[in-house]
Design a protein that fits this description.
mainly alpha; ADP-ribosylglycohydrolase fold
């Protein structure tokens, strides 16, 4: 098993890696591959913009982490352990940042960060669901969406205490807004993969296989998409393989494309190449690259993250802090719990 410090480093890298992928892909999220190449050259997008702004996937991932940490610190200090309710409250706080222009006086936690009060093309499913008085569960869905807005925010839950808890919590937290089984089961699968590679130090192919087997109980589509991603990855890195997996607008496709890119270019020195592969296709480029970056960050740690990219990443210090505290909570290391206890 990795040391606590290693897990903390991987948690930081998981969140930063996902944010880098999100920022790399956001400018071409809706572009076709031919249009990407016409603008950026035959190789496509090669690096983030000079100001690498967070996309909605990273915004919501941060609130996922903050919500989970609120539940963890509350439970660790004699209160009730209610992670799904705490994460739901965090998503409501994110919704507030999309409706207001700046923090109110006395704002705490992520709501005190002015940069988060920016609309970055958030998914309509999440926006609409979070405005309803009652949120969904896997057993009582509020809609039938299997869009990617659940999976692209679920990586922080991979730092739950156990693999099964990571899977279950991610399923439940994604189902708050996405009621289709593919929308929440794919989220559970990603959190499980993150946990297996970062906390249990499993090899990536074995972690993918285990996640495919686990998610098969709930969703054959996600399990089949993971199996196909594994098969195609053995054939090498190719945008043509991504096209076979889909465009990434729904959860199973986004997960499978992200997994495929991580498997096809799995080495530490291939991190940037994997993100470029995940971005340069006709589809949901920011989500697929965010999934790839989260997985490879969780697998390899911060040493693989390109420093020149991090230097231009918006709120990199905040992302690092949430990642650190997630890794610390998972391993019993001390961190500043007061940051999370007073959140509502």
């Amino acid at each position: 098993m990795p040391t606590p410090s290693t897990v903390v480093d991987r948690a930081v890298a998981c969140l930063l890696g996902g944010a880098l992928g999100d920022a790399l892909g956001s400018p071409v999220e809706y572009a076709q591959l031919d249009d990407i190449r016409a603008e950026f050259g035959q190789a496509g997008v090669a690096e983030p913009p000079p100001q690498a702004l967070l996309g909605d996937a990273t915004q919501m991932s941060l609130f996922t982490g903050e919500g989970y940490l609120h539940a963890w610190t509350t439970g660790n200090n004699g209160g009730d352990w209610r992670p799904v309710e705490s994460t739901a409250a965090a998503y409501r706080r994110w919704l507030t940042t999309q409706q207001e222009h700046k923090p109110q006086a006395g704002a705490t936690g992520l709501m005190a960060e002015p940069e988060l009060y920016a609309g970055r093309a958030p998914g309509l499913t999440s926006l609409r669901a979070l405005q309803e008085p009652e949120l969904g569960t896997p057993d009582r869905p509020q809609n039938s969406s299997k869009g990617c807005g659940g999976v692209d925010r679920s990586a922080p839950l991979g730092f739950s205490p156990t693999a099964e808890m990571a899977y279950q919590l991610a399923c439940q937290c994604a189902a708050l807004t996405h009621g289709g089984v593919g929308g929440w089961a794919s989220a559970g699968a990603l959190a499980l993969i993150v946990h297996l590679v970062a906390v249990q130090q499993r090899k990536l192919p074995a972690a993918i296989d285990q996640a495919a087997g686990r998610v098969l109980r709930e969703d054959a589509e996600t399990a089949a998409a993971l199996a196909e991603a594994s098969t195609l990855a053995r054939l090498g890195a190719s945008v043509g393989h991504i096209e076979r997996l889909g465009q990434g607008w729904i959860g199973p496709e986004a997960l499978s494309i992200g997994v495929y890119c991580a498997l096809a270019l799995p080495k530490p020195d291939q991190f940037t190449a994997a993100l470029r592969l995940a971005v340069n296709h006709s589809g949901n480029s920011d989500t697929t690259a965010a999934v790839t970056g989260s997985i490879l960050g969780a697998r390899h740690g911060t040493a693989v993250l390109p420093r020149s990219w991090l230097a231009r990443l918006e709120l990199a210090d905040v992302i690092e802090r949430i990642g650190h505290d997630l890794g610390a909570s998972c391993t019993g290391k001390k961190f500043n719990e007061r940051r999370y206890l007073g959140l509502t």
